[in-house]
Design goal:
mainly beta; Methylamine Dehydrogenase, Chain H; 5-stranded antiparallel β-sheet; 4-stranded antiparallel β-sheet; 47% strand
């Protein structure tokens, strides 16, 4: 016969709701994973993941609607999401906004309505939403297909200007307050913003981006204020964004990469990253060729851009589509897989560390916590 003493003591009553808070400043082992959610574009999300933890890796997430973009600001303890809503979910009146999220509570603090229904909607790219002026202004890329950038004051939550960008795309912050953009003719145009956020001087570089035969991937790895871009055929190009106008620096090929069988080329969506020490990590595909630039890769090649040498090759356990290095003193390399899981490696030795399973449906881009 069963008696009451045979049963375990009941668990303590749990308060409802029970909500944990995150730190206002995230650790260097955390990354933002943008789940594009290809099967349901209105239900994308930004997932906050601690890739150094042995368990409980997912620390929180926020929703992102309709081809959105996400940019965190550690100085303001806020996360900014550019997104689009329709009054009938998939149709009806369109509203573009920048939604402001609190980093501790992951609750919305407000939203800034963007005029004109022109925010660029495409598979997410990090440089479609950027910050400038000590994170006081947000800049969001528009595409109708006419291209422009809307500048938003994050203190007043108001639009301050719109800058036309005929023939140019995306946003690369320059100087104290300004931005550059890659252009279809192979040049880069830099636009200074005055104290009120209005466009000022414009400087256009000489052509350097070989659009027809070896174009650059448009998401760079940032080392300080230097952006390192990699081309489809494996050439690395540095651009200095520290001044008011972007300064195009030299380029060099990834060592021991081109030609031969197999032909190794960069491939994937976010194909290049950098750690705190300035080493570059490039996702490489052994089946390189015309049209292979989005295929993902099976190795990450670690390159010292100062010495122009290949430091090591990290063999990935699984085919991957994006890479991101954490900004720890001993960095981790995170490789996102088409199945939505993340593989984590010791970036110094190349050793496999762990898999964080089923983080996302379509983990297109990742953003490491930076100071």
């Amino acid at each position: 016969m069963t008696v009451a003493a045979d049963f375990p003591q009941p668990l303590a009553e749990e308060p409802v709701p029970s909500v944990a808070e995150l730190p206002a400043s995230y650790p260097d082992s955390w990354i933002f994973v943008h789940d594009f959610h290809g099967n349901s574009l209105i239900d994308a999300r930004g997932v906050i993941v601690d890739v150094a933890a042995d368990n409980n890796n997912v620390r929180g997430q926020i929703p992102i609607s309709h081809f959105g973009s996400i940019t965190p600001s550690p100085t303001r303890s806020e996360i900014y999401v550019g997104e689009t809503f329709y009054s009938r979910q998939t149709r009806g009146e369109r509203t573009d906004v920048i939604t402001v999220w609190d980093t501790k509570t992951l609750t919305p603090k407000g939203e800034i309505v963007l005029p004109g229904g022109k925010r660029g909607q495409f598979v997410t790219l990090v440089n479609s939403l950027q910050l400038t002026n000590n994170d006081k202004w947000a800049m969001i890329f528009n595409f109708t297909p006419g291209s422009s950038v809307t500048v938003v004051d994050l203190d007043s939550r108001a639009v301050v200007s719109e800058v036309d960008l005929p023939g140019c795309s995306l946003i690369y912050p320059t100087g104290a307050r300004g931005f550059a953009s890659l252009c279809a003719d192979g040049t880069m145009t830099s636009i200074a913003l005055d104290a009120q956020g209005k466009p000022g001087a414009t400087v256009t570089s000489e052509a350097f981006n070989d659009i027809d035969s070896d174009p650059l991937f448009m998401t760079p790895a940032m080392v300080g204020r230097t952006g390192w871009f990699v081309s489809f055929k494996g050439n690395l190009r540095a651009i200095d964004f520290s001044g008011e106008a972007a300064k195009v620096l030299g380029s060099f090929p990834i060592p021991a990469q081109s030609g031969g069988t197999p032909e190794w080329r960069p491939g994937g969506w976010q194909v290049i990253s950098a750690d705190r020490a300035g080493l570059l990590y490039v996702l490489m595909n052994p089946k390189g060729g015309e049209g292979s630039h989005k295929d993902g890769g099976t190795e990450a090649w670690v390159i010292d851009p100062v010495a122009k040498t290949l430091v090591r090759r990290i063999t990935l356990k699984n085919h991957s589509i994006s890479v991101e290095a954490t900004q720890q003193a001993k960095p981790l390399l995170v490789a996102s897989r088409p199945d939505g899981s993340l593989d984590v490696y010791d970036a110094v030795t190349g050793a496999f560390v762990r898999t964080v399973a089923s983080v996302a449906h379509t983990p297109i881009t990742m953003t490491a916590v930076r100071r």
